[in-house]
Amino acid sequence: MPELKLFPDRASALAERVDSLTLFALAISAFFSLLIAGLIFYFGLKYRRRREDEVGRTLGRATTVLEVTWTIIPLGIVLFLFGWGMDVYFDLSRPPSNAVQYYVVGRQWMWKIQHPDGRSEINELHVPVGQPIKLTMTSEDVIHSFFVPAFRTKMDVVPGRYTTLWFRANKVGTFPLYCTEYCGVEHSRMIGRVIVMDLHEYEAWLSGSQPTMSAVTSGETIFQARGCASCHRPDTDVRAPRLAGLMGKQVKLQGGALVEADETYIRESILEPRAKVVAGYEPVMPIYKGQIGEEELARLITYIASQKGVVPSAPARAASEDERAREGVEQ
What we know:
Elements: H1 15-46, H2 64-93, E1 100-107, E2 110-114, E3 120-122, E4 124-128, E5 132-139, E6 144-148, E7 153-157, E8 163-168, E9 173-179, E10 191-197, H3 199-208, H4 215-225, E11 250-252, E12 258-260, H5 263-271, H6 294-306, H7 316-330
Parallel strand pairs: 1-5, 4-10
Antiparallel strand pairs: 1-2, 2-3, 5-8, 6-7, 6-9, 9-10, 11-12
């Protein structure tokens, strides 16, 4: 389908589908608006009173065929639009499993973006063409809205919670990024750009701006500095649950409820640990709300998410040393 200059340039895998749906809905609305206006004008002329003494005509009884026709046809069109829109919405809201995750923090009046390797950008996002990108976003002050017109994707960025959007850029170039939720007196200046590069250029950009520390390493440093390691230990779950393999796992809470351990759950468990207490544990973890910033929190969550697999309750080496100690005592 040729691009219409009525809309911004398309630069993502789903942009054409969004435009097609929008144009179809506009066409259907325009068709029925003109049809109804034309029929009103036509019947107004045809059945107008031509003489002062003319008696108005008695309305005829509506037929079943007519009633069914003007009910079934609009209903069918509406259901078709609903199904099409639902299909596009699901594709827009469900990132593929191979999407690379970035963290975005909005604040008056700037965007701060954290790459998976730990580097950060302000009001700019460099991505490789063809790679699915997932943005996990939150705000430090008021509601913002992350909108890249060329990708036809938009999502509110809300304080106190995470929202997500994803895109796969299919066109190299620089595309404007806007905040489309009024957020204060400098709202119009909260703009940025998404720079889509081919793979070789992107790798060259990465090598030319090495981060001082990866997000995982930085998160581990925060984990240790905040004292988390004293309870959340890899070799025991006596004082607190193990974190290895936590991301994406179903967690049983006090009361029997189950919750998926995603970014939102981990965020809430750090800031307000008494909100959802894991079954079998006492709510003894300190509250970090107001003590840890969103950027620090994002790095901490990145570190927790990186802990894969299940760690045995006691290292094999330690066990063998214990056995040797017991053997020495017996001798």
